[in-house]
């Protein structure tokens, strides 16, 4: 919630620029110009348009995503490969019955990577379907100043009612296909994250240290962002 509030001005500026509201040659100047223009024309409130849906959606998305990911992950790990079976550990992660040869271990790692990739994408699809209506609300509220004044919403509830009345229920799922495409990020991030956790456990005798999890999370996020 704190990061959502702090990043709201940049989020509004990004959405406005994506909607074609600002066009300059320099991307850095574009952001500065957009933020300054919003502040001068709309006041501080302009930086926080769409904040209410965002404050609801961000925690809701992750509250759905992580349980879905864990459930899918354990099911796919259990069914993934003949050398692997669900075995309870302190971390709740399926472990190999034996290390076997290096080719077998490599194959098992590939199976796990595929399981984690599918789990990440599957969980993302579930979370996207549930939260997409709120993202539509946020985007409409952030970009409404680009339209005529008589088309502006009075607030989040008014936007919800107006969109449903004028465009129907399916309007809340506009952009869902693009959201699914955006899941390519987690399809890379989470397999890398899980692999780094396994390597850390091997080095630490099966234990997970908080600092290892932080590093794995940060590096996997970096890799996912760099590739996608």
From TrEMBL:
Solcar repeats: 1-75, 111-199
Keyword Transport: yes
Keywords carried by this UniProt record: Membrane, Repeat, Transmembrane, Transmembrane helix, Transport
Cell compartments where the protein resides: Membrane
Alphabetical GO biological process terms: nucleotide transport; transmembrane transport
Signal peptide boundaries: none
Topological relation to the membrane, as annotated: Multi-pass membrane protein
Record SUPFAM superfamilies: Mitochondrial carrier
A Pfam family reported for this protein in Swiss-Prot or TrEMBL: Mito_carr
One GO CC term, this protein: membrane
Alphabetized InterPro entries for the sequence: MCP_dom_sf, MCP_transmembrane, SLC25A32-like
Parts of the chain that traverse the membrane: none
Family as reported in the entry's similarity comment: Belongs to the mitochondrial carrier (TC 2.A.29) family.
Protein name stated in the entry: ADP,ATP carrier protein
Native organism taxonomy: Eukaryota, Sar, Stramenopiles, Ochrophyta, Raphidophyceae
